[in-house]
Design a protein that fits this description.
CATH architecture of the largest domain in chain B: 3-Layer(aba) Sandwich
GO cellular component, one term (chain B): plasma membrane
Number of strands of chain B: 10
Oligomer: heterodimer
Number of domains of chain B: 2
Number of domains of chain A: 1
Helix content of chain A: over 70%
Largest sheet of chain A: 2 strands, antiparallel
Organism (chain B): Franzmannia pantelleriensis
Order of helices and strands of chain B: EEEHEEHEHHHEHEHEEHH
Largest sheet of chain B: 6 strands, mixed
Number of strands of chain A: 4
InterPro entries (chain B): AAA+_ATPase (IPR003593), ABC_AA/LPS_Transport (IPR051120), ABC_transporter-like_ATP-bd (IPR003439), BCA_ABC_TP_C (IPR032823), P-loop_NTPase (IPR027417)
Strand order of the largest sheet of chain B: 6-7-8-3-9-10
Distance between the termini of chain A: 31 Å
Keywords (chain B): ATP-binding, Nucleotide-binding, Transport
GO molecular function (chain B): ATP binding; ATP hydrolysis activity
Strand order of the largest sheet of chain A: 1-4
């Protein structure tokens, strides 16, 4: 209990110290990491609680990003309105996707989210009039308020960090709520949850929409971070990248997805400095970590901490098999 | 209401009429009739494959009958969903109870008493554990294992938890699917005591193979055979029933 708060305080300290101690490049990498941590959190909320492996969380980020780009650049709408509309439209897409996927399970869900994601991705480069096709929409800029330029890396960092931390804390709360518990219950024993009088379909649907909205926030930050919106963030590669980060870090825990993203981005940055074959190295590292830590980095760290503080706590071990 | 004249048959707690179900060419229920009065303890027996669990699944709404109707305290619930039936006061336990294995007994208890609405996204889950729930858990002997993961529970304790979860719902009709299966003799004694102590207003319909327990607990016993009601009567009548002895007791006692 207390240890949990200590970890959170330590993390917050690192996040505060980072822009004060590190160079511009490291801060901008941190921005990118935070954005993908949100996307991975969105993925993990569904994967960890419901056993639903989604390939369309980056699609929601993409829908959000395109809305920002189109409304902000093409129509020149003011920043608060652009962001509000982007999040509304993303949530609406999540509602529609959610209605289509709510009855599906495991592989069916994976395939449906793959299909939906690929459809939106295709739309993003084929609907040239609106999206600008492969060229995308350039010139997406944060506003300047009261002399503060939000495009500046460190200012942007403060904004992204604040929102990301707030969302992680909210999801932390959600994981410990009866709703969070119900999602776990649905994953492990759906029939029983129904017989206990819980609205199973509604709970699933709500989680899906919520996860979509979180991905929408990631999308808003992503497009302002890149300054341009193009089809590539909607591609399967990004969806799989997020999945990889979440699995590497441990999608069952709250901080696992953030940890996975941080490790993956660090790896990519470091290894690319030394060799062109960095993908081979990263692949090897992934292979080993999945083999040695099937439940993710966060779980390994958690077990290590636990062994030190208490002989054995029973709550976190699962009897369910590992799902792909 | 009906309480003025006890001799008149009151609105039944459960009225199953002409229920039929087949899986392909396999007829698992053909024209099943069952009438259970409020407050009654009814045993439901029959050899394996007689269609007992199928009947339970239809009463609980997990299986749609091909024909027939199910009345619950005078209300037709044939078309209601599982959740609707639960909210109306129908509770059931399962033959193979698993609940949510990866979390603790306490967390499972917090999942009891669904009300058909989305639970809070913001309150801690512990807020759902009130005195009432913890008393039920204590009566069923769960206090020592509250922080144990359900996956680590012994079979007997798991059944107690299962029962606590469904009791917490305060059901008007409780369907118990082989509550004593797999329990040790001592655990059976405890379970029997618990069932005997159930509030009188709870109607009980129980599938059970332990004849000693069925005979001790039931006001009346129904015998299901090959998808049909074969006999019904008091424990004495059923024990003496030659046909029942032939198909069930004879075989059960070797």
């Amino acid at each position: 209990m207390k240890r949990e708060y200590l970890i959170i305080l330590a993390l917050l300290a690192v996040l505060v110290a980072w822009p004060l101690l590190m160079g511009n490049y490291a801060v901008s990498q941190a921005n990118r990491a935070m954005i993908y941590a949100l996307a991975a959190l969105s993925f993990s909320l569904l994967a960890g609680r419901l056993g639903w492996f989604s390939l369309c969380q980056t699609t929601f980020a993409g829908i959000s990003g395109y809305t920002v780009a189109i409304l902000g650049v093409r129509f020149g709408l003011p920043f608060p309105l652009v962001v509000t509309l982007a999040l509304l439209l993303t949530t609406l897409s999540a509602v529609i996707f959610g209605l289509l996927t709510v009855r599906s399970r495991k592989v069916g869900f994976l395939m449906l989210t793959l299909a939906l994601g690929q459809m939106v991705w295709a739309l993003s480069f084929q609907w040239v009039d609106v999206t600008g096709g492969y060229n995308g929409i350039a010139g997406v800029r944060m506003p300047v308020y009261g002399g503060i330029d939000f495009n500046a890396t460190r200012v942007f960092y403060v904004l992204v960090t604040t929102v990301t931390v707030a969302i992680f804390l909210a999801v932390w709360r959600l994981y410990r709520s009866p709703f969070g518990l119900l999602l776990l219950g649905i994953q492990e024993n759906e029939q029983r949850m129904r017989a206990l009088g819980h609205p199973v379909a509604l709970a699933r649907f709500s989680a899906f929409v919520l996860a979509g909205a979180i991905a929408g926030v990631a999308g808003v930050f992503l497009v302002y971070d890149m300054g341009i919106m193009s089809p590539s963030p909607l591609g399967l590669g990004h969806a799989v990248w997020v999945l990889t980060a979440a699995v590497l870090g441990g999608y069952r825990s709250l901080l696992g997805p953030a940890l996975g993203v941080a490790v993956l981005i660090t790896l990519e940055t470091l290894v690319a400095q030394y060799t062109d074959r960095h993908m081979m190295v990263i692949g090897l590292v992934l292979l080993l970590s999945i083999l040695l830590m099937p439940r993710g980095l966060a779980d390994v760290l958690e077990q290590r901490f636990k062994r030190k503080s208490k002989p054995q706590a029973s709550a976190t071990t699962t009897t369910q098999g590992e799902e792909p | 209401m009906t309480d003025a004249q006890p001799e008149m048959s009151p609105v039944p707690a459960l009225e199953v009429a002409g229920l039929a179900k087949s899986f392909g060419s396999l007829m698992v229920a053909s024209d099943v009739h069952l009438r259970v009065t409020p407050g009654e303890r009814r045993g439901l027996i029959g050899v394996n494959g007689a269609g007992k669990t199928t009947l339970f699944n239809m009463i609980a709404g997990e299986l749609k009958p091909d024909r027939g109707s199910i009345g619950f305290f005078g209300e037709d619930i044939t078309r209601d969903s599982v959740i609707q039936r639960t909210l109306k006061g129908l509770g059931r336990t399962y033959q193979v109870s698993t609940l949510v294995p990866s979390v603790t007994v306490r967390e499972n208890l917090a999942l009891a008493r669904g009300d058909g609405r989305l639970p809070s996204l913001w309150q801690p889950w512990q807020s759902r554990l009130d005195d009432d729930l913890m008393t039920t858990a204590d009566q069923l002997g769960l206090t020592p294992v509250l922080d144990e993961a359900v996956a680590n529970l012994s079979y007997g304790t798991l059944r107690q938890l299962e029962l606590a979860m469904v009791m917490a719902q305060k059901p008007r009709l409780l369907l118990l699917d082989e509550p004593a299966a797999g329990l040790s003799h001592a655990e059976r004694q405890v379970l029997q005591g618990i069932l005997q102590d159930l509030p009188q207003e709870v109607t009980l319909l129980m599938i059970e193979h332990d004849m000693e327990m069925v005979l001790a607990l039931s006001d009346r016993i129904s015998v299901l055979h090959q998808g049909e009601m074969f006999a019904e009567g008091t424990p004495e009548e059923i024990s003496a029933h030659q046909g029942v002895r032939d198909i069930y007791l004879g075989r059960a006692n070797g």
